[in-house]
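User: Please fill in residues for this 173-position structure.
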């Protein structure tokens, strides 16, 4: 059991609404509210992606709708080829053409991008550990900012690749 889970269980027990059955209505409402907030916080902290998104949001590094997703430069050629294959599949579907070879090519591309997504997730978790270590070491603002910039870049890259995977999966249905 890790530290987050231990703390969550301790606070859950302390704040659980069953402990406030005989309390005033206001105390029961506060218990429900705090218990709900605790559950939400635990879900965010247990999910590495949600945790990084939350961290960047509270540090003012990421605002909803602010980041425009762009293809990572090293993926431009693969993304271009993928988009061409998707267009060909859509055209073949509407024309009633042979879809087997196009679907096979897209399935291969989907697997490639799923692997890239797993690689980005690994890098994101590593950068998050660097953030934790920087906090523990009381790192300088510049060092923490550099890690946050890296986390933001990785999160944007992940979102872009994830969207590619989702779009391909939709077209393969």
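Assistant: Residues filled in for all 173 positions:
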């Amino acid at each position: 059991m890790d530290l987050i889970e231990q703390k969550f269980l301790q606070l859950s027990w302390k704040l659980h609404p069953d402990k406030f059955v005989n309390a005033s209505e206001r105390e029961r409402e506060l218990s429900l509210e705090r218990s709900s907030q605790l559950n939400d916080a635990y879900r965010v902290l247990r999910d590495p992606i949600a945790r990084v998104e939350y961290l960047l949001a509270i540090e003012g590094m990421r605002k909803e709708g602010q980041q425009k997703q762009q293809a990572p430069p090293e993926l431009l050629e693969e993304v271009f080829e993928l988009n061409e294959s998707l267009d060909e599949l859509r055209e073949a579907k509407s024309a009633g053409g042979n879809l087997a070879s196009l679907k096979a090519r897209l399935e291969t591309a989907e697997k490639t991008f799923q692997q890239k997504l797993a690689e980005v997730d690994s890098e994101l978790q590593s950068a998050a550990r660097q953030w934790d270590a920087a906090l523990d070491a009381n790192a300088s603002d510049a060092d923490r900012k550099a890690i946050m910039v890296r986390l933001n870049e990785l999160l944007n890259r992940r979102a872009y690749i994830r969207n590619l995977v989702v779009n391909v999966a939709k077209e393969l249905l």
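For context: The chain has a mean pLDDT of 88.
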